[in-house]
Amino acid sequence: MSYHLFTFLEILSVYDLLQNFDIISKLPEEVALIIFKMLDENSLVVASQVSQRWNDIIMSNRKLKATLKSSIKRIKKNKENSTISVPKTTFSKKRKRQPTDNGTQKNKKRNLRF
Prior knowledge:
0% strand, flat
């Protein structure tokens, strides 16, 4: 039992070290900019959200700033377009069932397409 606990504590300490290890912030800003310039648009958006320091470095470069802003705008637009729109009539008040040929009402499954 103590072996597992000791291993677990070791894992926690390594994890804690990794959480506080920010090599980009320790680099000169020029070197960090070179690294950020190599990122694709989605990775640049993620990098800008890692820390205030990373965001400041990215926003200090005119081209990266423009790329970041257009990427965020594109992501927001894609999110808006990906929402499912369901016509109001689909889930509105109960409709009266249509009588069948013999005058009785028949339960029909509704196929909803999204």
